């Protein structure tokens, strides 16, 4: 099969080339670059546009699209694959994506033409799962607050949760989303021996029980959990998973963790919940607009841990993604 691979700023073409050279299922390939020299900040904006506007967010250079139209396999990370390309690619059989989502691919056109799309939701799953555990511990145990105080010359003893803080083994953790990342978070939490509730209307409840967790409704999870962490996929335009109603149902001692998508949480309502002490705290890695303005109200609060979208930022998340996707293609062909 003939493959056209397109690298970008996050996964340069050299990583595609390295794996394609070892592949036994790709006979011929060409590697190209798309926005490979962008800065991180500029590329964040590229990703944001793709996630909100889809495959038509950017026009890709003619040189690349013409090569795509002659390929059996199109292999990308963030580079858009448009309706036009898919329609005119006479021999196209597969579109491979190193992303977890498929917003950069015109899925309707692919479906109409019978082109199989293979994406990679697990490419940064281990990284995000580890980061989630870190965010939970950091927020509950006041690690960043203690560090900041000590660096400022203060031996701080009193925190908002000083009178209510218990160990994870005494807590109920609510997992929203039983996909790849949600399951990995559960796997890592088990060593702390908490009670784990799971809400995912698309998951097999027996599978949830097999993991030692209890499947529950969203309302029950919101009301019972001491820590709520979001790992469900959500698109721009969908209603937030956690909004005013959910914050009003949460315990005053509860914490919200979001290492998934910014649109999963109504950020204005999060600010009100934290500033009015309706909930104990939060840890947030993703924001609707990135980079975040220094005037963002959440940054002024003491009961929130904030980081700049670092959950998936490990070497393995990107370097190994092309290899993972080609393995998935190989299994698909067997």
Automatic annotation (TrEMBL):
<dbReference type="Pfam" id="PF02826">
    <property type="entry name" value="2-Hacid_dh_C"/>
</dbReference>
<feature type="domain" description="D-isomer specific 2-hydroxyacid dehydrogenase NAD-binding">
    <location>
        <begin position="133"/>
        <end position="311"/>
    </location>
</feature>
<keyword id="KW-0560">Oxidoreductase</keyword>
<comment type="similarity">
    <text>Belongs to the D-isomer specific 2-hydroxyacid dehydrogenase family.</text>
</comment>
<dbReference type="Pfam" id="PF00389">
    <property type="entry name" value="2-Hacid_dh"/>
</dbReference>
<dbReference type="InterPro" id="IPR006140">
    <property type="entry name" value="D-isomer_DH_NAD-bd"/>
</dbReference>
<keyword id="KW-0520">NAD</keyword>
<feature type="domain" description="D-isomer specific 2-hydroxyacid dehydrogenase catalytic">
    <location>
        <begin position="58"/>
        <end position="330"/>
    </location>
</feature>
<dbReference type="InterPro" id="IPR050857">
    <property type="entry name" value="D-2-hydroxyacid_DH"/>
</dbReference>
<dbReference type="GO" id="GO:0047545">
    <property type="term" value="F:(S)-2-hydroxyglutarate dehydrogenase activity"/>
</dbReference>
<dbReference type="GO" id="GO:0006564">
    <property type="term" value="P:L-serine biosynthetic process"/>
</dbReference>
<dbReference type="InterPro" id="IPR036291">
    <property type="entry name" value="NAD(P)-bd_dom_sf"/>
</dbReference>
<protein>
    <submittedName>
        <fullName>2-hydroxyacid dehydrogenase</fullName>
    </submittedName>
</protein>
<dbReference type="GO" id="GO:0051287">
    <property type="term" value="F:NAD binding"/>
</dbReference>
<dbReference type="GO" id="GO:0004617">
    <property type="term" value="F:phosphoglycerate dehydrogenase activity"/>
</dbReference>
<dbReference type="InterPro" id="IPR006139">
    <property type="entry name" value="D-isomer_2_OHA_DH_cat_dom"/>
</dbReference>
């Amino acid at each position: 099969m003939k493959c056209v691979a397109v690298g970008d700023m996050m996964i340069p073409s050299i990583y595609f080339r390295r794996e394609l050279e070892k592949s036994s299922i790709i006979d011929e390939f060409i590697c190209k670059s798309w926005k490979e020299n962008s800065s991180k900040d500029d590329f964040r904006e590229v990703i944001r546009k793709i996630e909100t506007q889809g495959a038509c967010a950017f026009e890709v250079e003619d040189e690349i699209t013409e090569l795509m139209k002659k390929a059996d396999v199109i292999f990308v990370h963030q580079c858009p694959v448009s309706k036009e390309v898919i329609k005119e690619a006479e021999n196209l059989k597969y579109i491979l994506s190193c992303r977890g989502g498929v917003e950069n691919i015109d899925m309707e056109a692919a479906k109409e033409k019978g082109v199989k799309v293979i994406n990679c939701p697990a490419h940064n799953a281990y990284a995000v799962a580890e980061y989630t555990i870190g965010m939970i511990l950091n927020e509950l145990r006041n690690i960043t607050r203690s560090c900041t105080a000590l660096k400022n010359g203060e031996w701080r003893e009193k925190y908002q949760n000083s009178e209510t803080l218990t160990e994870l083994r005494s807590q109920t953790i609510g997992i929203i989303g039983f996909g790849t990342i949600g399951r990995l978070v559960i796997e890592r939490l088990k060593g702390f021996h908490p009670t784990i509730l799971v809400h995912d209307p698309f998951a097999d409840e027996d599978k949830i029980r097999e993991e030692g967790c209890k499947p529950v409704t969203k309302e029950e999870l919101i009301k019972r959990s001491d820590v709520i962490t979001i790992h469900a996929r959500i698109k721009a335009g969908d209603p937030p998973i956690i909004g005013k109603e959910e914050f009003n149902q949460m315990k005053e001692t509860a914490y919200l963790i979001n290492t998934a998508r910014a649109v999963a949480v109504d950020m204005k309502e999060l600010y009100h919940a934290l500033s009015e002490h309706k909930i104990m705290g939060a840890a947030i890695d993703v924001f609707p607009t990135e980079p975040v303005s220094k005037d963002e109200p959440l940054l002024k609060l003491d009961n929130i841990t904030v980081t700049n979208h670092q959950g998936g930022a490990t070497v393995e998340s990107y370097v190994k993604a092309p290899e993972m996707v080609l393995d998935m293609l190989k299994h698909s062909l067997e």
